[in-house]
UniProtKB/TrEMBL annotation:
SUPFAM superfamilies: Bacterial luciferase-like. Keywords: Flavoprotein, FMN, Monooxygenase, Oxidoreductase. InterPro entries: Luciferase-like_dom, Luciferase-like_sf, SsuD_RutA_monooxygenase. It holds the Pfam family Bac_luciferase. Residues 26-321 form the Luciferase-like domain. It comes from Novosphingobium resinovorum. GO terms for molecular function: alkanesulfonate monooxygenase activity. This is Alkanesulfonate monooxygenase. GO terms for biological process: alkanesulfonate catabolic process. Gene3D superfamilies: Luciferase-like domain (3.20.20.30).
Length: 359
């Protein structure tokens, strides 16, 4: 199984080291982030979505216009747009991107945040709705004739999309750590995505989701989000990590806590992970997770390039073939990862696959 490397595009150059007002929409930053990550060899970039954020459909179309190869993983929340209309919007965006679109279906962790857009359903109801929503998307993309539907959440007659995704469908990413999220993702995801976790944690996720998916005749792939601190040597990498922790701690003490994130099972898992110690496994570092607690996605691998490639390949061996890899400097770290990590990972995967074929 090949490896897929994903990055991230925010609507400005914000990071833990350089706070920027959420309201600041920086077109130049979007262009630079897109072009740097494309040049670095990233396959896709996640473009996030949340209540009050700028529209990411529009941002994604612009990213497609200023790049040639870079794919987009578009975060999308069911419930605010009819699935028939969403199917047409996503297919249109995929065509504009030349078939480079993936959709990351976000059920929504917080009742409070979902209510900002008028959604007062419970989290359990939202997972149930997401399953029906994704099924409708795929039916509309695939059908050459109008579709009628009378379900629990949606009812329509003659739903149809004159425009289809370039490759016939669009890969669906889905995530979460609650039992209902795992059951829903097992039933609908092409790729089951998680926040940062250890190899042991991801092995557990792979086993749970795979066990739930097998009776349904499904075999989703897996994605984990990891931060990287790349040093010329192991000692220099850990010195960089210590400096990062000090600088981020100073900024975090002044920052408003993200109370929305604390309600998500995935973030609760991150907080639990941070409680196990600052260093885990080969080079997994909880330093920033310890500072940010239950609103963090900052499990970090620290080391020299060879150590980081070796550690990431442990995830690949555990059945995780897609990654979000980023550092703490959106531009500088993307360039370093593109130079020192991505090519080496691709070589390792090619070698590993060749060895498996020989067996």
């Amino acid at each position: 199984m090949p490896i897929e490397i994903n990055g991230l595009i925010n609507h400005n150059m914000a990071s833990e080291l350089s706070p920027v007002p959420v309201s600041h929409y920086d077109i130049d930053a979007i262009v630079k982030l897109a072009k740097v990550q494309e040049a670095a060899g990233y396959d896709r970039v996640l473009i996030a979505n949340a209540a009050t954020m700028p529209d990411n459909f529009t941002t994604a179309a612009y990213v497609g216009a200023v790049t040639e190869r870079l794919g987009v993983m578009l975060a999308h929340r069911p419930g605010f747009i009819a699935p028939t209309m969403a199917a047409r919007m996503l297919a249109t965006l995929d065509r504009l991107l030349g078939g480079r679109l993936g959709v990351h279906v976000i059920t929504g962790a917080s009742d409070i945040e979902m209510q900002c857009d008028g959604d007062f359903h419970t989290k359990e109801e939202r997972y149930d709705r997401s399953l029906e929503y994704i099924d409708i998307l795929r039916r509309i993309w695939a059908s050459e004739t109008p579709v009628d539907h009378d379900g629990k959440w949606y009812r329509f007659n003659g739903g149809y999309a004159e425009i289809k995704p370039l490759n016939g469908t669009i890969p669906v990413f889905f995530g979460g750590m609650s039992p209902m999220a795992i059951a829903t993702g097992a039933a609908c995801a092409d790729v089951f995505a998680t926040l940062s976790d250890t190899v042991a944690g991801m092995t557990e996720v792979v086993q749970k989701v795979t066990a739930a998916a097998q009776p349904l005749g499904r075999k989703p792939d897996f994605l984990v989000s990891l931060r990287l601190v790349v040093g010329e040597s192991e000692d220099k990498a850990w010195a960089q990590a210590a400096d990062l922790k000090s600088r981020i701690a100073a900024l975090e003490s002044k920052a408003e806590k993200n109370k929305v994130a604390t309600s998500a099972a995935g973030f609760a898992r991150t907080a639990e992970l941070a409680g196990k110690g600052e260093r885990l496994e080969k080079c997994f570092w909880n330093g920033i997770n310890e500072i940010r607690g239950a609103h963090s996605n900052s499990g970090t691998l620290v080391g020299d390039p060879d150590q980081l490639v070796d550690a990431i390949m442990d995830y690949w061996d555990a059945g995780v073939h897609k990654f979000i890899l980023r550092g703490y400097d959106p531009i500088g770290d993307a360039e370093i990862i593109g130079r020192d990590i991505i090519p080496a990972l691709r070589r390792k995967v090619t070698e590993r696959e060749a060895a498996m074929e020989v067996r």
